[in-house]
Design goal:
With about 350 residues, the chain is of the alpha+beta class. It has 6 helices and 14 strands. The longest helix has 16 residues. Bound molecules: zinc ion.
């Protein structure tokens, strides 16, 4: 019934990737992968089947952890409710794409690691890494806009019909291509863990796709771009009554962030007085947006006292919080200019 090249069937909810979660901004990335978890998010993972095989759980955790060095999330394996809830039941692999998991009722899994056939360890690992790639926001590589695969569609439809998958499923999971902003990378990656394996007779040129069982260089590069350690952040202009700006960068108690900045802010209306992030006017007081700090400087705060950043500084989060920054706006006029911040997050 099934070629040994086909290891598992994945029914990721591709529709999820078409609709970004409300209030979720990816503006600092040139590529706009949808549904990314917030920087520094504590991503909890649980296994929900009562009496699940503990060895299977351990193996799954080992494979999930292969993503860990490449993301700025904190993976935590927990009992009970979690962001990612994994079941081994069923005969299809499945995952929500990134934060779309938040839309799943709490008593239901967000990921299934099931297969129709018995999998060897490498195949099981490939399935786990593939599905967890979806959970982190990655989509299918064979549906890349750059995919060169020349499908023999009638053959593929017939094959999957024999396995109980209708043509709509085949269109959604195999044939349909993503628009560019959704794709994992700019070039097609034949080694991606996010690629299915396909036998040669599925394609008109008889070129199949061999199974990939390890994370490819592009998989890692993509995930590092999606969850970077260094974040570039352009601070918007502040109105004269605005103060702290949340950066959407989550931090945990004790975590450190190094911040550097470029750009200027020009004060008016008394002529042009450009100020750099070094904060020349350290002696000014009065209307500083950050109590106790100097006006005309760049400050950041993460659960404790505001810290003057100058041309580069490190702050340590006092509690679980997110990073806030404030510029040296005063309360007299709206200032000109912007700070281009480079935020280097030391997550691990
Ligand atoms: Zn998939």
């Amino acid at each position: 019934m099934s070629s040994e090249l086909e290891t598992f069937y994945c029914s990721a909810d591709i529709e999820d990737a078409l609709s970004p979660t409300n209030g979720h901004s990816n503006q600092e990335l040139a590529v706009l992968p949808q549904n990314r978890w917030p920087h520094g998010h504590k991503l909890t993972v649980s296994f929900v089947d009562p009496g699940a095989d503990i060895n299977k759980i351990r193996r799954a955790i080992d494979y999930i952890k292969l993503w860990d060095p490449h993301i700025n999330l904190r993976l935590e394996f927990v009992r009970g409710h979690a962001d990612i809830r994994i079941s081994f039941l069923g005969d299809v692999a499945y995952s929500k794409i990134g934060r779309a998991a938040e839309g799943v009722p709490a008593d239901q899994p967000t990921m299934f690691l099931g297969s129709k056939t018995a999998l060897n360890d490498a195949q099981f690992g490939a399935m786990v890494m593939h599905e967890f790639g979806h959970a982190l926001g990655a989509v299918h590589e064979h549906q890349s806009p750059e995919s060169p695969i020349k499908w023999d569609k009638p053959v593929v439809y017939k094959h999957y019909a024999g396995l109980g998958f209708d043509n709509k499923w085949v269109d959604q999971q195999i044939f349909n291509k993503y628009t560019k902003p959704m794709a994992n990378s700019t070039a097609f990656d034949p080694n991606s863990i996010m690629l299915y394996a396909f036998p040669p007779h599925f394609t008109l040129d008889k070129k199949g796709i061999v199974p990939n069982t390890v994370l490819s260089r592009n998989d890692i590069t993509f995930m590092r771009q999606l969850y970077p350690q260094t974040i570039r952040y352009t601070m918007p202009l502040l109105g004269k009554s605005e103060k702290w700006i949340p950066t959407n960068i989550n931090l945990y108690a004790g975590q450190q962030v190094r911040i550097s900045a470029s750009g200027t802010i020009t004060f008016g209306p008394w002529g042009s007085w450009p100020f750099t992030p070094a904060g020349e006017n350290k002696t000014a007081g009065g209307g500083s947006p950050a109590p106790g700090l100097y006006k005309n400087s760049l400050v950041a705060m993460a659960g404790g006292q505001p810290v003057y950043i100058g041309n580069g500084g490190i702050i340590t989060a006092a509690s679980d919080t997110q990073l806030y920054v404030a510029s040296n706006d005063d309360f007299w006029v709206d200032n000109d200019g912007k700070w281009d911040l480079v935020i280097d997050v030391i997550y691990k």
